[in-house]
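Notes from hallway chat w/ T.B., transcribed later so I don't forget. T.B. wanted the structure written out for a chain they're using in a teaching module, and asked if we could keep both sequence and structure tokens in one place. Agreed to drop them here.
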Amino acid sequence: MKIYIFYYILITSLLFGQQAREKIYLSLDKAVETALAKNFEVLRAQNNVEALKGKFWNSISLPSPWISLSHDFVPIGKGLSDYQERTWEINQAIEFPTNIFLKGSRSNYEISASRDDLDKTMIETTSNVKKLYTEVLIRTKKLALFQDNLKIAKDFLEKADLKFKSGEGTKLEAITAKIQFNEASASLKSAQNDLKFSKNALLTQLNSIQISDSLIVLTDSLAITRINLKYEDLLQEAVANNSSLKRTDKQIEIASINKTLAWSSLLPNFNFSYYRQAEPDNPNLYGVSFGISLPIWFLFDQRGQIQEASANYNIALEENHSLKNSIPLELNNAYTGFIYEQEQLDTYRNELLPEAESVFGLAKLSYDSGEINYVEFLQAKQNLISIRNNYFNSLSNYFTVLSSLEKIIGRIIR
């Protein structure tokens, strides 16, 4: 029996282990879809909307009524059935009617503000996923660049050693080739770590940290198309669609209602009671009572509520005013960076990269034919590696500022 259990566990482990090692192919659309379905911040924002919807019904609900039963004037030593008076009573407290309406309005604004938070979270999550997805693609290309660099460095290290041993090369050339090989090895390890970090950051956004980064295969390519954006149009969008700004508008309304409610605390609350009484000679008596609260401590309780609500209202106004002032500045910084990075990419693609590749190709032919020495070839190689690496860095910066723009204007730029 034990041997069968052993084989069962072994086979099951092998099957699940094989499934765990399968590659996971991920498109950008699939990554965004997964993040919006599983990301913790999105789920929290969605649940907060639902929680506030539930709070709405609580805010307009009357307090629970009190129902009581009393047996009075029962002689000592007798049971409750020997009462002289029995009373059933139901008691209901009622706020001033306008307060119920104001609390319902406040809850509606709170629900709307939570929806703004959800929109903001979804936009930020989508933008972050897009940025991280492209970052993985960029760092994958950087890894390939440093792999090629290491291959070239290794090839020329071997050639430099052969030349030095045969007397055709110098010791300086051999030492320089060795240094370049070690530097290329270190750059490759750094690129591997950067790629691993980006993949793990992407998996964190997808709430899929249980998946190994080595199993992720991105299926989309790194396609860059020129986007024509105008600052004035973006500013108009930001003022209309920025979720944080819309939320502060709702906060002003909420604070205004709280201020009105604080003043309403000076109004009386009501209390209504209905009761049925039974006496030995007359079991069908009834009565009603009606009362109001007297806010005679308005110099303390109500005064404090009004002062606090007024201060919170002023804070909400200032927050809204501050955000309205900061949005144009933040947008201008992001827009300026976007235009700069887009122009940089054009310069790299149209001028610097073609020129550096052409120079490197000529340098390699000249070095192979003995027309130039290793130092001259090394300069051409380092120039190409540097320009390609700077191009990838500019790509990363481009998507960073694009993500900033998206978060400010409240939509994904395609």
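Follow-up for T.B.: The chain has one domain: 23-409. Might be a good example for the class.
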